[in-house]
Automatic annotation (TrEMBL):
Annotated organism of origin: Botrimarina mediterranea
Official protein name in the record: FixH
Record keyword Transmembrane present: yes
Pfam families to which the protein is assigned, alphabetical: FixH
Positions of transmembrane segments: 20-43
Length: 174
């Protein structure tokens, strides 16, 4: 005759493997969610690019401004010079030309840049007109090699050039 203590053990055997499988799946989900939370909080590259939502809201106005900018025919050439400051900042030269290749004088250039590996470290700089026509210089914190996002607005009176491009920037030569 079986003892009364044997029944609970037999009942447990029917649920043993489903409970183990469910516990393993729950533990796996917990580990994945924890790893994603740590990655989002601790890894800088896990941050999304700035102002994506605001840009999406103003898409139509942005496209109209881009068409007006393209109709000007202006061109902005961004060149980091081979000289680095003591703190690692780089001197850059911006050449602003009109549709005929002549320098655009008395324009104000406002640029915003960030490295794709650290989109939260965005910097903005305003560059006033300089003595050499069409040539604008600034010192920027370009301390990393790699892919940088450049957004610039060059404005002279009512004319506005909008530039959005990715640039590969190398380290300065020693």
């Amino acid at each position: 005759m079986p003892s009364p203590e044997a029944k609970p053990i037999a009942a447990w055997r029917h649920y043993q493997w489903p409970v183990i499988v469910i516990a393993l799946l729950a533990g796996h989900a917990f580990i994945i969610v924890g790893a994603l939370a740590v990655a989002a909080a601790m890894i800088p590259a896990a941050v999304t690019a700035p102002s994506g939502y605001e840009d999406a809201l103003g898409w139509d106005a942005q496209q109209a401004a881009k068409r007006a900018s393209d109709s000007l025919g202006w061109k902005l050439d961004f060149t980091p010079l081979d000289f680095a400051e003591l703190n690692g900042d780089r001197r850059v030269q911006l050449l602003l030309r009109d549709s005929q290749g002549a320098p655009v004088e008395n324009a104000v250039v406002e640029l915003s840049m960030y490295h794709h590996a650290k989109p939260q470290d965005r910097f903005v700089q305003r560059i006033e007109p300089q003595a050499v026509l069409g040539v604008y210089e600034a010192v920027l914190p370009l301390r990393r090699d790699g892919l940088w996002r450049l957004s610039a607005v060059a404005q002279r009176g009512e004319d506005r050039l909008l530039v959005d491009e990715d640039l590969w920037i190398e380290a300065p030569k020693p």
